[in-house]
Write a structure and sequence with these properties.
Pfam family, one (chains A, B): DSBA
Structural class of chain A: alpha+beta
Helix content of chain A: 40-55%
Strand order of the largest sheet of chain A: 2-1-3-4
CATH topology of chain A: Glutaredoxin
Distance between the termini of chain A: 21 Å
Radius of gyration of chain A: 16 Å
Catalytic activity (chains A, B): 2-hydroxychromene-2-carboxylate = (3E)-4-(2-hydroxyphenyl)-2-oxobut-3-enoate
Family (chains A, B): Belongs to the GST superfamily. NadH family.
Shape of chain A: globular
Oligomer: homodimer
Protein name (chains A, B): 2-hydroxychromene-2-carboxylate isomerase
Number of domains of chain A: 1
Strand content of chain A: 5-15%
GO molecular function (chains A, B): 2-hydroxychromene-2-carboxylate isomerase activity; glutathione peroxidase activity; glutathione transferase activity
Chain lengths: 200, 200
């Protein structure tokens, strides 16, 4: 079995959302699974000196236009939540708490979180909102809430973020195939090509 | 006849070079011509707060890798000149000097300049180097050298740069189709799709 594709993303990233709707199917077409890796993009921005896209002159208006246009092209629902940008710390911690128990379920939960944020325009910013999303998936909301506040889980997210940055991740989505890095949802075509051809 | 596609680029941009090798053929497949528009990306960076890619932590190493990988994928020669980045002022002025005389020839000259820079790894940084490139194309080197130093041509480049930024251009390449903006050489697939479908 080939190694999983590694899919780094921040839950506050619209382009990460667009990739989240495609990455599992894309990988499956080439006999791969996906290791989902939420991290805190703001920490990476401190390294690179970047600011959130929508706060940048010229770039902000372009990307606001492009978020919606890119979603429309893919036939995906898109609503930018208010406020935007936001810090997706609780959701990221919830992911790592769940991943330690059931990685496949954690991946599905990540997709559900992204749908809520950018498909429905609502940010599950705290344990209650996350538990509400989790319940229909058979995830114990009280345990999830406790998990989010567990110092070990907080450390886990910090560690995942540090590892991502150390490796070279600076944006969302950011994908590795057998160590080969691809930044941006508009590189998914190349990600698929790389998988099909085994590189170039 | 449909309006030309507008192709904004900085001669010091590797991704602009990759686009320059494809844009005319791409447009022609959809009955369009291309209006080439060199501008000074550094001036746009002052607006957006960006720095050259290769000077940014994490982003620099990724893009150095990606420049070469992207060229390899397209089967295009690629050599990063030294020093890099550099300011492509003389080449940009030469373009606007020539464009006022023969726009089609100016476009071909722009392609030749890009080939010299990123295909052969040499920057034609002054009038003599540009004249050497221009001679085989039947362009008068002495007139070109005088044009580069003409205050009206210097103004023309400033004006072109200001117009680009006012319009929303912040990167290279940057393409407009009937007012619709696309940033980045990795959006050429979408540019082609937009032309074929008339939007989405």
């Amino acid at each position: 079995m080939a190694e999983p594709i590694e899919f780094y993303f921040d839950f506050s990233s619209p382009y990460g959302y667009l990739a989240s709707c495609q990455i599992d199917d894309l990988a499956a077409r080439h006999g791969r699974t996906v290791r989902w890796r939420p991290f805190l993009l703001g920490v990476a921005f401190k390294e690179t000196g970047q600011k959130p896209l929508v706060e940048q002159p010229l770039r902000g208006p372009y990307h606001l236009h492009d978020f919606a246009r890119s979603a429309r092209r893919l036939g995906l629902p898109f609503r930018l939540p208010t406020p935007f940008p936001f810090a997706a710390i609780a959701a990221s911690r919830a992911f790592y708490w769940l991943e330690a128990r059931d990685a496949a379920l954690a991946n599905r939960f990540a997709k559900r979180i992204y749908q809520r944020i950018f498909g429905e325009g609502q940010v599950p910013a705290d344990a209650a909102a996350l538990a509400e999303l989790a319940a229909p998936m058979g995830i114990d909301g009280a345990a999830l809430a406790a998990g989010i506040n567990d110092p070990a889980i907080k450390d886990r997210l910090r560690q995942a973020t540090d590892e991502a940055i150390k490796r070279g991740v600076f944006g969302s989505p950011f994908i590795y195939i057998d160590g080969e890095p691809f930044w941006g949802h508009d590189r998914l075509g190349q990600v698929e090509e790389w998988l099909a051809r085994g590189g170039w």
